[in-house]
Amino acid sequence: MPRPLWTGAISFGLVTIPIKVISASEDRAIHFHQFHLSDMGRVRTRKVCDLDGEELSQDEIGKGYEITKDETVPVTDEELDQMPLPTAKAIEIVSFVDAAGIDPVRIADSYYLASGGQVAAKPYTLLRQALERSEKVAVAKFAWHGRERLGMLQVREEAIVLHVLHWPDEIRSPESLAPKDVELDENEIEQAVQLTETMAADDISGFRDHYREALEQLIEAKSEGKATPEPAEDTERESGQVMDLMAALNASVEAAKESRGADDGDATDATVHPMRSRRKAPAKKTAAKKTAAKKTAAKKATAKKTAATRSQEKRSAS
Known about the structure:
The protein is α+β, with helices and mostly antiparallel strands and about 325 residues long. Helix content is about 30%, strand content about 20%. The chain is built from seven helices and nine strands, in the order ββββαββαβββααααα. It has a seven-stranded mixed beta barrel with strand order 1-2-6-9-8-7-5. Strands 3-4 form a two-stranded antiparallel ribbon.
């Protein structure tokens, strides 16, 4: 496990649980440096004063809030430390809610909370089992990096996880983003549902970052003086291409079945929503009715013709 980012305690009513905060994820992306193309020298970011052009060291730099372009209010670290925040080293649980009541958009970073020694083992386990049995998550407040934050405590396997939450007023409304006045055919909706079920998976643990793998191969080849890997075939559609939605859905369902080794007789079809030929069925019935009507009319015409012929024969005989 990496080094703890923060040490403190969970405040659970009158119970105090010493904990260590450890990042629950790690950055596996490949990062680049900037360099001078002519001589491969590193290009670095230097902190320079706008007024006198002098390069500054960290102890010469302070914080300030810009009110206008010509007015900045300086704020010192001492003033920030005296702000009326909760205990700097406490995660204070304020309520318990259903996990479904937390909007996933509000979740930011996630951290594991490790028990801080043997003295924390019992209260840590107590809180974990209380969360598991109640099937709820804990909402907590805590101070970190000079500001008050909102968090959610949730159990993952045998550990308690702290999810940092955005405050409600930090979430933008998506009201103006959804398309309006769009008409969808019922068959299109059912085919889209079929596509989601054909592409369904039990978990996503098998997904890999193919871009990072290709980038690693590129760097390795260049560092060893080898030929760079061939670029992958570009399957991107031409911009502006108009697609038939139903045809695209049908093709997507078939492609998903093929990628999972399914065929037309596979059990996959038993779990999806079949396409109902609601509009075609009446046409077949109408066609059948017309055919039957034609046959009936032909029979009646034949019967009338036969009856007329017999009547004429009788008159001729008399």
